[in-house]
Design a protein that fits this description.
heterodimer; A: alpha/beta; 2-enoyl-CoA Hydratase, Chain A, domain 1; 3 domains; seven-stranded mixed sheet; about 15% strand; B: mainly beta; OB fold (Dihydrolipoamide Acetyltransferase, E2P); four-stranded antiparallel sheet; 10 strands; about 5% helix; elongated
């Protein structure tokens, strides 16, 4: 029957294309510890959920002997599927085909699936593994990248966009991940940089390896380009799948609710924070003492460790957490931690995720290197994003909240909905020692025993101002609560805030201190 | 990833905090006022041409040395009226950023 033979023909064509660049190229990929593009898609998506599109797409380039080259699926695989039941649009570059290089048709496939994702309002996952622009296709490759970047921007804040760097991602290509919401990197596999080591050597005389320039560790610890670090592709995919369970599929809905769960008894909230405000503790333990199942999904764990961001659930519903980390640099706010917090706050605001902020900081970090790095305008980002956010904003002041840090960390004044303070809280213009040096300068200098006057004044200031009650007397703090009541107050406030609706003044958009 | 660091002491506005100190803070370059009498390279490059000799009087704005970097010839000019005290490099030397090239007095 004609149909039977046609089906046979289809299967044969498919089989051939499914091999991508062929057995040899696949061997090379495996030797580097990398999986093939198809293996990655199968591993990430729910079983049998993947539908592929544009398998038969071919390039029509002719320059530089391109007409003699047949590139299966033009080096990229696109399609849709589900992750734990959530619909996703996905593309995976195939390094076995012309090094996964991007030509016109390759880019058309990617933009096609990006258009689908936006139209159908579902998350987009891009697996990057490419040598970069296909030089033979010249300006067409540049056009291809431009069309991708534009769509990343168009979709930003509408659908979640996730980039997974499972190979080189260099030159212009690296801007797509930078425009997306979350970037995942894997040790020894991810390489991201604008200009590679060879050019750097020629032009600047600097010798640096790909790994030292833009490997996974660099991107996770130093540059802040990556949000999740994994030691293997397997670990990475577990992270991606977990992230997707926390976020909505588009900005018109809230994240899927789970069953509520009590925090684990391992975390006794009253035992975590030391009385002495100069001693450290891990603020993540406070989060774990309060969140469902003590399950805190941290984001950017290795960057700007003096602030902590991530997702958790409260009675089954996703919440975004921001917390100063006294373990690192006393939890000060500085250039990098401001950037880290501000972008996350905006992400939660865009995707209807309420914000809970835990405050314990001595202020902004002083010093010429911070000032020259722009701590003023970077620090302002935190103020801007908290003010701009219209999702429910809950604040718990655990310990120190001095000066500008108090204002920036989701204070009443930036329209936090509920502000609670622990009895340990010190809400003041500055710490007692600093205050004594400035406010009581004259008395100390003119005293017969400056040192004991200084100690006396420090004690006076401590008694009078280093507490939550002055702020509470003004209504800047809604309630002073016992640590053991924290989860209860947060759950009640979240329940009240379910239908929060406020209007910002009509504008095209603000001008944040970018 | 990195092994757990020990706690150190950080002074924020006269209060001493026990906490981990970041490597960025430890490795920071403390501010040093720019000394106009020390002519430093502002970019890594190769010394292409030295335009002055020791003992020579120079005026503010005079070109002292040419650095080949970023595919361009960069001329470093004096920011003060001074005399050339010492020349620390020779033509062909490859220098990193911030290297001392010429001392004026």
């Amino acid at each position: 029957m004609a149909l039977k033979s046609k089906i046979k023909e289809l299967k044969e064509k498919r089989e051939k294309l499914l091999l991508g660049g062929g057995e040899q190229a696949i061997e090379k990929q495996k030797a580097l510890g990398k999986r093939t593009a198809r293996e990655r898609i199968t591993a990430l998506l729910d079983q049998d959920s993947f539908d592929e599109y544009d398998l038969f797409v071919e390039h029509d380039a002719r320059d530089f002997d391109m007409d003699k080259k047949s590139l299966p699926s033009d080096g990229v695989i696109i399609g849709t599927g589900t992750v734990y039941g959530a619909p996703v649009a996905i593309y995976a570059q195939d390094f076995t085909v012309a090094g996964g290089s991007l030509g016109l048709m390759h880019s058309r496939k990617i933009t096609k699936i990006m258009d689908h994702a936006l139209k159908m309002r579902m998350p987009l996952i891009g697996i990057n593994d490419s040598g970069g622009a296909r030089i033979q296709e010249g300006v067409n490759s540049l056009a291809g990248y431009g069309e991708i970047f534009f769509r990343n921007t168009l979709s930003s804040g509408v659908i979640p966009q996730i980039s997974v760097i499972l190979g080189p991602c260099a030159g212009g290509a690296v801007y797509s991940p930078a425009l997306t919401d979350f970037v995942f990197v894997v040790d020894n596999i991810s390489k991201m940089f604008i200009t590679g080591p060879e050019v750097i050597k020629t032009v600047l005389g600097e010798e640096i390896s790909m790994e030292d320039l833009g490997g996974a560790r660099v991107q996770s610890e130093i540059t802040g380009n990556a949000h999740f670090f994994a030691s293997s592709e397997v670990e990475c995919f577990e992270q991606i799948k977990k992230l997707i369970t926390f976020i909505p599929w588009h900005n018109g809905q809230k994240a899927r609710p789970f069953e509520s769960a009590e925090p684990l008894p391992d975390y006794d909230i009253e035992k975590i924070v030391p009385d002495d405000p100069t001693l450290p503790y891990d603020v993540k333990d406070v989060i774990r003492a309060v969140v469902d199942d003590s399950d805190f999904f941290e984001i950017m764990e290795h960057y700007a460790k003096n602030i902590v961001i991530g997702f958790g659930r409260m009675e089954g519903k996703t919440v975004g957490f921001v917390a100063n980390q006294p373990l690192e640099m006393a939890g000060v706010l500085d250039v990098d931690s401001s950037d880290k917090a501000a972008r996350f706050i905006r992400y939660c605001d865009a995707f209807n995720i309420p914000l809970i902020t835990f405050v314990d900081l001595p202020g902004y970090m002083p010093g010429a290197d911070q000032e020259y790095a722009g701590v003023i305008r970077h620090g302002a980002k935190v103020l801007y994003s908290y003010s701009e956010a219209t999702v429910p904003k809950l604040t718990v002041i655990l310990r120190k909240a001095y000066g500008g840090g108090y204002i920036a960390m989701s204070s009443r004044h930036l329209r936090a909905d509920f502000v609670f303070a622990w009895p340990l809280a010190e809400i003041a213009v500055m710490g007692p020692e600093g205050a004594a040096n400035i406010i009581f300068r004259k008395e100390i200098l003119s005293s017969d025993d400056p040192e004991s006057t200084r100690r006396q004044k420090i004690e006076e200031y401590k008694q009078k101002f280093a507490n939550p009650y002055v702020a509470a007397s003004r209504g800047y703090v809604d309630a002073v609560i016992e640590p053991s009541e924290t989860r209860r107050f947060l759950l009640h406030s979240l329940a009240i805030s379910e239908n929060k609706m406020i209007q910002m003044p009509v504008k095209k958009h603000g001008i944040p201190p970018f | 990833m990195a092994k757990k660091k020990e706690f150190g002491t950080l002074n924020i506005n006269s209060t001493l905090y026990t906490t981990r100190i970041s490597s960025r803070f430890e490795e920071r370059v403390p501010f040093k006022k720019q000394d106009p009498f020390n002519v430093l390279s502002f970019i890594p490059g190769t010394v292409l041409d030295i335009l002055v000799t020791p003992g020579q009087e120079v005026h503010k704005g005079d070109a002292l040395i040419i650095l080949d970097a970023m595919k361009m010839q960069n001329s470093l000019k004096s920011s003060v009226d001074a005399k050339v005290k010492e020349i620390l490099v020779k033509t062909g030397d490859r220098v990193p950023k911030g290297a001392a090239l010429i001392i004026l007095e």
